Amino acid sequence: MHSTRLAELGITLPDVAAPVAAYVPALQVGNQVWTSGQLPFVDGVLPATGKVGAEISPEDAATYARQAVLNALAAVDALVGIDAVTRVLKIVGFVASAEGFTGQPAVVNGASHLVGEIFGDAGAHVRSAVGVAELPLSSPVEVELVVEIAH
């Protein structure tokens, strides 16, 4: 299923990122799993800091959104197993934006496109792409994920 597709794509889910405050990475509610906002940590380190449209290019930020959604999927996998996912319901992407930067949708596409590659039609989702002044640890992006799981 999805674990097979990940292998076909050459993707290994990372370890679940340790929370940076008082929360859990993911929570199951009925047949849904909601993740906390995930930063684009790679091996416990942010690959870059700063605002998109200033220190960070939109293209690099899309790569970081892809990493952040991988971290969200890792949280889902640790809680219920990635193969339990029947549908991706929603992605919320936050983009630390320089003044005047309005390309948030293209940045969050980094997360959306990866979800589509992994889940196919079941990856079609609703989403929000929100520009914000600051994110935790000066991260350029943060991504939340809501998925439906099999009962």
* CATH top level class name: Alpha Beta
Order of helices and strands: HEEHEHEE
From the coordinates shown, what is the CATH architecture? 2-Layer Sandwich
Distance between the termini: 16 Å
Contiguous uncertain segments of 5+ residues:
none
> What's the arrangement of strands in the largest beta sheet?
1-2-5-3-4
Task: Describe, in plain words, how this protein is organized in 3D.
30% of the residues lie in helices and 24% in strands. The model has no long low-confidence stretch (mean pLDDT 96). The protein has one domain (2-149): 2-Layer Sandwich (60s Ribosomal Protein L30, Chain: A). The protein has a five-stranded mixed β-sheet with strand order 1-2-5-3-4, with helices on one face. The two termini are 16 Å apart. With 151 residues, the chain is an alpha+beta fold.
Summary, kept brief:
The protein has 151 residues and is of the alpha+beta class.
List keywords for this structure.
five-stranded mixed beta sheet; globular; single chain
Ordered list of secondary-structure elements with their pairings:
Elements (H helix, E strand, L loop, with lengths): L1 H7 L17 E4 L2 E4 L22 H23 L4 E12 L7 H16 L6 E7 L8 E9 L2
Parallel strand pairs: 3-4
Antiparallel strand pairs: 1-2, 2-5, 3-5
Helix pairs in contact: 2-3
